[in-house]
Write a structure and sequence with these properties.
With 122 residues, the chain is mostly helical. Helix 3 packs across helix 5 and helix 5 crosses helix 7.
Length: 122
């Protein structure tokens, strides 16, 4: 298992039992698959935004985007609290954290979110 994660078994032994369990959990397929599906949903929702907007569709898009953003914030928080410095050594995690930070203005009603959506889809 340690080889798959790129960790030395010695590193896992030095973790507390709780951190070790979470370290294993965040590198397992169900955890990663859940957030991959959440990402696909979020991209589909951001791509569905159009003009002129239908009121019902706009509400669905807004609430789905809100839920996805909260999910991504939770993912980043869990990973940072478990992986600590190791989180920032992975460029994918740095990119992911940048996108999460850019999505936070979406949580503000009538916030400056429209310009960020095009970049977040990328």
């Amino acid at each position: 298992f340690a080889k798959v994660m790129g960790l030395k078994p010695r590193y896992l032994r030095n973790l507390s039992p709780t951190r070790r369990a979470w370290m294993i959990r965040i590198h397992q397929r169900p955890f990663q698959l859940f957030f991959l599906i959440l990402t696909v949903i979020n991209v589909a929702v951001l791509a569905a935004d159009h003009y002129p907007d239908d009121k019902t569709l706009s509400v669905i898009i807004e609430w789905t985007n809100f839920g996805c953003t909260i999910g991504f914030i939770i993912e980043a928080t869990i990973k940072i609290s478990v992986m600590r410095k190791m989180y920032f050594r992975d460029n994918y995690n740095n990119f992911d954290l940048t996108l999460v930070a850019m999505s936070i203005p979406d949580l503000i009603p009538n916030g400056p979110n429209q310009k960020m959506n095009a970049l977040r889809i990328f």
